User: Fold these one by one.
Assistant:
Number 1:
Amino acid sequence: MLLNTSKPYFKNKSLYILFVLMLFTINTSAQNDTLFFDQNWKNTIKESAIYYRTKPVKIKTKNAIGYKLAATDSLYIINDYYLKNNKLQFEGYSEDSEGKYLVGKAKWYDENNNLLDSRDFNYKNYNKSKFEFPKWPILYLDYKIASKNQFIGGLEFCLDCESKNKLFLGLGFGVTSYNHTYYGLPDLHLSYNTEKFLFIKSGISDKHAYALAGATLLNFLDLGFGYSQSFNKDKIPVINGFTFGATFRFSSNQKVYTQIKIM
């Protein structure tokens, strides 16, 4: 006997199946839009995640932070949560969907929803351009010891302060002594300081060249070991051999220093 599929029973069943499929599709889409992170904020799967982020959505810049930016029409809303209790861990706005370039007010919370930190990334007077001159120079003081002690002071420019890894170009002048006579010692150097608290540095004077590597304390203090090579060992002062160096930086520009982000 043929079944009459036009009866309401079959219509209702078809609608039910369609409804279930729609719910499954919506749920799958929502999971794909969610990013999961481990304790070091590296992307991971849900089973090993500590935090998660809902899909960032865009909002007009003025509606988000109350003022316009020259080259940014809209910002992403960034919301991070603790996976174990779905409590808010971070809220803020960013120029990018990864949350690397924060704008306006940002807040961090602990697992009990208590405020840990709040910062205002205020770029009201910030005007983006393809090229920007380095910020006001950094004052640096430097001490090295190889075959002779060297005391140097001068100015550094932060060539790439917007990224977590910093590149410093320095120009200074110092002194060293040789047989109870003092000699002037110009200094030109490049120092690459990473967010992992390490640095590499190379420099040159009219008497020698040097290279150092070591650890940095938030870019305020660099301590390193390396080697100096004299250009002419027959002309004094002779600066040659294994070298220890310490560099201090002083600047009102906080982007010079490595920032510790509180999670």
Number 2:
Amino acid sequence: TALLLLVGFQGALGMWTVTLLLKPLVVTAHLIGGMSTLGLLCWLWLSQRPQPRMPAPSGARALVLAALAAVALQIALGGWVSTNYAAMACTEFPTCHDGQYFPAMDPAEGFVLWRGIGQNYEYGVLEHPARTAIHVVHRLWAVGVTLIVAALALLLVLRASGPLRALGAALGAALVLQLGIGVGIVLLHLPLGLATAHNAGAAILLLCMIATVHTVWRAPREVAA
């Protein structure tokens, strides 16, 4: 039922993307809807498979939910970067530009979600400080995502066994891949292939997270020593 409703809403978002002239909020919602559809399909598929009986490490349940929330927010921020044409607001790494980590920024303007209708958003409407703020926030949250997902991956690799250990390794690999693509986009000045790969990398990381959440919450709890 959720998939049916979501796919219908995706059709409406596709229409509004055109009629509202690439409004960033609508286009970002369209991306989130696509990722949500993928996640629900993955969850449905996993629900039809036999569940492992290996116990989940202590603390894994809370950490896996925090990691999923962090990844979901980062995907939304990535969509906001793309729809506001902020991917090249920073042209250096690890600094942003001119050797500065935090150049002039306008986050209040960068994160205005609704600007009315009738304006064409192709190539963006924001000034450079607003786009820089969007890009820098995406970078900063990437640090948070890295810490949370890496902690989860290490916990599963070191403390779990069987499918959960394999999922921990997959999470770590997906995280490293996505970070590498993100850095490459900046250093190589947004080649189309890498930009597309960044979307694919986000999807792979999300699928790994969905599989981990499903497995951890279906596994029995680890008995404390």
Number 3:
Amino acid sequence: MEQDGGKITVTIVGGGLVGALSACFFAKRGHKVRLYEYREDIRTAEYARGRSINLAMSVRARAALAVVGLEGALVREHGIPMRARMIHSRNGERRAIPYGTSEQCIYSVGRKYLNEVLLTAAEKNPNVELYFQHKMVGGDLSKGEINVEVINSEGSKKQMMVKADLVIGADGAFSSVRKQLMKQPLFNYSQTYIEHGYMELCIPPKKSGDFAMEANYLHIWPRGNFMMIALPNQDCSWTVTLFMPFEQFKSLDTPQKLLDFFNHFYPDAVPLIGEDRLVKDFFESKPSPLVSVKCKPYHVGSSAIIIGDAAHAMVPFYGQGMNAGFEDCHIFDNLMTKHKNNLKKALEEFSDYRNPDAEAICNLAMYNYIEMRDLVNHPSFLLRKKFDMFAHWLMPNFWIPLYSSVTFSHMRYSLCIKNREWQDKVLHRSMYFLSFATILGISAVAYKCQDTILNIYTSMIRSAHQYF
């Protein structure tokens, strides 16, 4: 359906971060929005520990939030700036690796808090209706129709059909909307689970109420094949996430094995967490899986589209899952402006434009796990990091490091990778020419000094003859 310049009705499936922000964007344009979420309202529900992974907000998410008037308050009132990685060695030593320049940082933000803010902001708009415990169970996306299962307070279920001009699937990595897209011809889909899972733990505040570690850092304990990270919270606690192979999780099947493991690999973290709390939290939880999803196209005709994790779920190691999802909302909003609410044109261009960038950041996220858990300890990594920082300081518009382009710019993710590949070629060729020039220089010096060298060699021979 084409709606040149007119108002449309929008059905959003998923009330998480991206779905709630998408509702804010469409409501801002004056469109009628109905949002359906299968869970209960997160603002009134008891928050379950172990399913969050704190968020690292960077410029892409902030730009999207700014459009709907939420960026300033979220960053000022809730975000905790993190200016560097703080690397913890096994002997307790710590060293900081800055993310970028002294002015650049990412912000630690609580997932639940941010979701609550977005839902409340959406709900304040009279054009938005929120429905919780409403689960999508089917539909015909080509007609803008979804079937919703409603669970009432007594636990009984009933189904209803909901129709709109546009259906938006923002329902996460295991998207019900995407399942319907998979029935469409020429729809490509792949998912990859890594062999590592994650589990959340907690470092409480000190008795004084202060942070137990330096606050403005993302703390990392890299240990080769596994790692642990910690992000600061507003209450001065730390959300600690342990990443390692599922087999390793299974091997820690007694409190003593767990404590021995932590005392060996994370000795400085044990007193911060506390032995009793570590044992309690670990055995009350189960490691959760991590999945990467790629698919194409993201739309059906002029009536349905998927965004966020539904379109491009990624492992969390580049801190770009939320940022990419929020950027989806921002890009789609710009395309609606460009095409004057012509859904067919906007949806087609979104799929074509966004897919290479989404796949690029999914690949980068996979690579960054290796960097975080292992490469940050390698001298070659640190040397390249220092070179990139120096070159960026010397030529800020010419040499932009990979992490800076992903985290502190709006460069397309696919171009971030191409930019890095170009930088690698420049360095490799520079090293080749430097080596060649060095050999030529040594050869030239040797040629000019050949008489001197020959005299020295002759003298050494004569001395040897005299000695023997």
